[in-house]
Fold:
Amino acid sequence: MSRIRKNGARSATLVAVTLGLVLLLGVASASSPPRAVAEIDTSFTFGMVGDQGADPNAQAVMTAIGTKKLDFFQNAGDLAYAQISTPAWCALVKSKIKVPFLIVAGNHESREVSHFSAIEDYVLPGCLPNPLGAALKESPYIDQQPAGTTNYAKEYYYDFPATTPLARVIVLSPNENWNLNGKVAYDYSKGSNHYQWVSDSIDDAKAHGEWVFVVFHEPYINAGGHGNQPQPSHDLFNLLVQKKTDLIMSGHDHNYQRSKQFALTSTCTDIVADIFNAACVTHKGTTKDPYIAGAGPVALVAGMGGGDQYPIIPTDPDFGYFQTTMGKGAPNFSFGFLQFSVTQTGITGTFVDATQGGFTDSFTIKGSPPPATVVTPSDTPTPSATASATSSASPSATASPQVKVASTVSGSVPVT
Structure:
């Protein structure tokens, strides 16, 4: 009997210890955030290009996109060019690209060009609707005649990764026409609803310690043969420089252009298209004068998705703002796209040559976005109608010190 009692007591003790460990582990796991999310979401990779179409060059670019391990792809406008039907183009994209494919209207999807399909046809179910669902935040300002029902592919933003964001991508539509009976473009002049929505969206992202990337089809600063759109985008571009966004990405001109880093200073209080002011350049993006995180945006024109080649115009005053370019007539002209790797401590951009033309370019912005703003309940600001309608809750991030890095260019046209 004594042996039985001793064994029973030992068993009871083991059970109690085991239960205690289980309870402790349960409490720890319930009170601690999942480590897997934080560990996985420390970086992401995405691609970007505009001006695609469906010809062999466009399909070569799509095939190249499909071979890369991307988390998503952001188109910069001008989609099928009526080379094939809109449903057929959507099917072509989905057959080659298996990651979320986000779009924005170019001039060929606006109602300015009546013989092409409007952007509303591309966002229909079964074609290329919003691939991110509720994670994508549309602007509430839908200025269109007849009235529209969505701002996806016109004016929206999303944070990525959704759970622990590193960056916010803001997608806009300056100079695109949404009116069947005359010109009605979204107004991005200072003080307008659209301007304020952009400003609030940038501030919200920066308050959460995120990089900020802005995408729209028609570039404001442009040394290509297609020209720029100075009036609709002047205030918008200067806002993006003033707020020190990180990347401004466009298409429209069917070539490649990477700018120096822009900044507003005491001797550059306003950047005006077609008027070069060297004081508006803070860093050139070279080995000796590298891009610095938080110093200002780098503007990229990436219209090599497959559309006809357009030249670079060296006599254009805006040419001085670009560090490297590639356009029609270049011996190494290549169709391709930009691939970005984003971490909390840097951004790397690489041109991916899809047609073996020989052009290469890569650059790095190393450092971190400004640290997240810690807001206590006692000083939490009351959100405006604009901010409350569009902002999303993003966890804070801790930034590391900013450092300088080099960029490398090969087979390109450097600008001194």
